[in-house]
Write a structure and sequence with these properties.
heterodimer; A: alpha+beta; Quinone Oxidoreductase, Chain A, domain 1; five-stranded mixed sheet; 24% strand; B: alpha+beta; 2 domains; seven-stranded antiparallel sheet
Chain lengths: 202, 180
């Protein structure tokens, strides 16, 4: 599978990586149709996240089609069109049940360090360090963290009625092969770039 | 070495108690335990991994069992590392599930092996027990110990730095991490 990867500080590449596989019973594999750049990618690009390794795949805001489901998945089936929020919510803990998805108690596969640092484990998320949850959950600081899952149905509904325009956000739609250029333009805000959006198919 | 830890699980007391009382379930969330095999209502055989690819095996006896309230156990006389533990289950306030209070005691002064095991627990045995209870919560609430490509080790997650972006594992890495 082709992916945009982090090669080193401010060095982005496009390379072949192994095909994803189901790890948890509740996993699904999404065939990505479109993937957007996110402001927090800039922290990853700039080398501010110490755990980054060369070859790590970038991109945690995406949509597509369900290609495979784990044995514990009941809500989705192969072929469903889905929008993915970067935070991993279990859907079962108190926070998820209250719609506070980014504060999920169970979504982080390895929260030991943050537990030690802040006295509270933090939520899990795809491809970044979820500091927002710490701010909401454990400290008195307020973060800009959105509980995005909660709003997606309403946003999709409004988009289908043409009440929400998104053209001004997806300013630069390009092929995945142009990922390094797209991330550069996004970082420099070149040519009025609000979001670079990548299409794996070209 | 004496350890205590607490968590709140959003499941009814009866369910959390029943899960723990079936001691075979303990290795699903306790990092150092490989297997627990019950021999009868009160006795069981516990196998734990120890340093240098060794395993430690001991017999344990349930010494207290108050249904939906408390379970206590201790190792029998032959154990290399004498240990005992107790877990209490309390209804959490506002119907928020079950508070799980765990208390473990390991007699690590009892011999060389004890010291080796203490070392194996690392510098932060409390963190390990906290992590064990977090996985208990994951198993009971979400149905499994969660993994990601960036932290695929399940209950051995402390082996590595916390989650980071990653790429999918190769077949070889998958075999190494998951043993499958």
């Amino acid at each position: 599978m082709k992916a945009v990867t982090w090669r080193g500080v401010n060095e982005i590449g496009v390379e072949d990586v192994p095909e994803p596989t189901i790890l948890n019973d509740h996993d699904v594999i999404v065939e990505v149709g479109l993937s957007a750049t996110c402001g927090s990618d800039l922290h990853l690009m700039g080398g501010y996240i110490p755990a980054m390794r060369g070859g790590d795949v970038l991109g945690h805001e995406f949509m597509g089609r369900v290609g495979e489901v784990g044995p514990g998945v009941t809500k989705h089936q192969v072929g469903d069109r889905v929008v993915v929020v970067s935070f991993v919510g279990c859907g079962k803990c108190w926070y998820c049940r209250e719609g506070l998805w980014s504060l999920c108690d169970n979504g982080n596969p390895n929260p030991g360090l943050t537990d030690a640092l802040w006295g509270q484990g933090i939520g899990g998320c795809y491809g970044k360090f979820p500091l927002g949850a710490v701010m909401n959950k454990a400290l008195t600081l307020r973060g800009a963290q959105q509980h995005g899952h909660r709003y997606i149905p309403e946003i999709l509904d409004r988009m289908s009625r043409d009440e929400v325009k998104t053209e001004h956000l997806a300013t630069h739609v390009m092929a995945l092969d142009d990922g390094p250029e797209g991330y550069r333009m996004f970082k420099e805000k070149e040519d009025g770039c609000v979001r670079a959006v990548f299409r794996p198919g070209g | 070495m004496e350890l205590t830890a607490t968590t709140t699980v959003r499941r009814p007391v009866a369910e959390v108690y029943a899960f723990w009382r079936l001691l075979e379930n303990l290795p699903t969330f306790m990092e150092h335990l490989d297997e627990v095999r019950t021999t009868d209502e009160k006795t069981s055989t516990w196998t734990a991994s120890a340093p240098f690819d060794r395993t430690v095996v001991w017999e344990a006896l349930v010494i207290e069992d108050v249904v939906e309230e408390r379970i206590a156990w201790r190792s029998t006389e032959q154990a290399d590392v004498p240990n005992e533990g107790a877990v209490s289950f309390l209804p959490a306030p506002a119907g928020a599930g079950t508070e799980v209070h765990v208390h473990l005691v390991y007699d690590v002064e009892a011999g060389k092996l004890g010291k080796a095991v203490a070392k194996y627990f690392g510098e932060e045995p409390h963190q390990q027990l906290d992590d064990d209870l977090r996985r208990l919560k994951q198993v009971l609430e979400a149905g499994e110990v969660v993994r990601s490509d960036g932290a695929p080790w399940g209950k051995q997650a402390r082996k590595e730095f916390p989650q980071h972006p990653a790429q999918p594992m190769t077949a070889e890495e998958r075999r190494e991490v998951l043993g499958a």
